[in-house]
Amino acid sequence: MYGDPATIRKILTELGDTWAVVGLSNNRDRAAYGVARTLQRFGKRVVPVHPKAETVHGEQGYASLAEIPFEVDVVDVFVNSHLAGAVADEAVAAGADAVWFQLGVIDEAAYARTREAGLEMVMDRCPAIEIPAL
């Protein structure tokens, strides 16, 4: 329900190639680091969003979605479930086309709000697992 194949395919192939990855830092031990690298290998521009605003994988980082000075197509969320809803709301405000909550990130109310706002959304899935299968 929160990650049907048609929506996954649409987000990964049709909605654009600029992905803001919320929670991405230079910590190689975190899942976001490897997932971002995989997205880049599949042609996605990865924009790090983290309070440290570090440059990661050659891309300038930003402390928040609101600070990114260009359009973002997809917001990929690597934060705890209790923080994810606020990030989804920020993605709506920023004009993103889709929100992707990573494995283990679940907020059904945020899912409903995001879909009601007209964005595509996937929850509790990983694009680095899904994209090679396309």
Tags for this entry?
134 residues; 16% strand; 5-stranded parallel beta sheet; 35% helix; 5 helices; alpha/beta
Biggest beta sheet summary: 5 strands, parallel
- Work out the radius of gyration: 13 Å
Cα shape: globular
SS content category: alpha/beta
How would you describe this structure to a colleague?
Helix content is 35%, strand content 16%. It is of the alpha/beta class and 134 residues long. Helix 4 links the parallel strand 4 and strand 5. Helix 3 runs parallel beside helix 4. The protein is globular. 40% of the residues are buried. The mean pLDDT is 95.
How would you summarize what this structure contains?
Helices cover 35% and strands 16% of the residues. It is of the alpha/beta class and 134 residues long.
Q: How are the elements arranged and paired?
A:
Elements: H1 5-13, E1 18-22, H2 31-41, E2 45-49, E3 74-77, H3 81-94, E4 98-101, H4 108-116, E5 120-122, H5 127-130
Parallel strand pairs: 1-2, 1-3, 3-4, 4-5
Helix pairs in contact: 3-4
